[in-house]
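ok so I'm stuck.
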Amino acid sequence: MRGPVRRLLPALLALLLVGAPGLLAAPGAAAERHAPAVSPVRSSSTPRSLVQHLTVSWDPSTQRKVYSKNAVVPGIGELALICKGNATMIRLHTEDRGLETQMWLQKFEVKNEHNVVAVKTPRIYRWAHALDDGTGGTGYYAAEGLNQRTPIENYSSGTINGIISQRPGRNLPGTAFAPKPVTSFELTWFWNGFRHPADYRSCRIDAVVTTQLDTRAGITWRGSADAVGHDRQTTSIPGFGDLTLECRDEVDPTGAAQTLSITPAAPDADLYVERVTGEGWVEDHVATRTYAWGETVPATLGPVPMPRNGTLRLRLRVGEAERWLLVSSYDVVNNPDPRLNVCEVAAAHYAR
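replied:
not stuck anymore, here's the structure
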């Protein structure tokens, strides 16, 4: 029997590598899995905005594999997309940890055969709050891993909607200096065969990173005294109307003290809103609503209550045109020490 067994070994090994039923998870199963489509948005640069389309893409046919690419985050630093057999992540870098730098993420993927979402906030900072002594904080990098397990799972795919903003450290008033532009991004990832030899592995991360250079939509105040005169802002969305953010130093269970509203350029308009908070099944953590023109306030879309600790993703339609927005929102308005009350809101509009 030694001869037949010896002749069968190559075939048995081949079955293990390509995935016979009941054996190892198969990289070959990728034939039944489809990577998310590449975004049609192209890189561009104007005085108003910077759009960067980056793709990390490799498979066994790639002669010179590139495992990471970096996007510039104007005025803040760099965002790296990394996909290696032992490391999959997005990583933000900035040179000044004395500032408060935030990367808010809506991360959609599948866990235990369920569609799930998680709001993540990788931060770079030195001062945790207004009374902090500044001896702690983080380093100069903040990252979010894409893999769920270690070692990395054989196959994975998902999407991220993200928004990056920067402001004075929490030891200073929110208006201590002019904040940097806000950057938003949309990202998809897909890899397969990571628990098999290199000849069976493939990966792709596709991202569009958009920075509004001419305006900065956001509110920052630190402490109740700083909120006075700094709790409301209106900025323009060219061709679509005006965006108004309001974050008052008030506790209001109806959500009327922290809101977003849009005055559209024409009455033929509506606003679709996805409110994403916490972590868990999508149906439990994503709430949707569409606001009609003048539904609550004349000539206005909204007001939309902003989450105390979460994100909004919005689609603004005016006539035949659409514009998407991402919003991060964090506020504390009920601290016994009013110096520790805080509001940090950032918003960015982008094309997709």
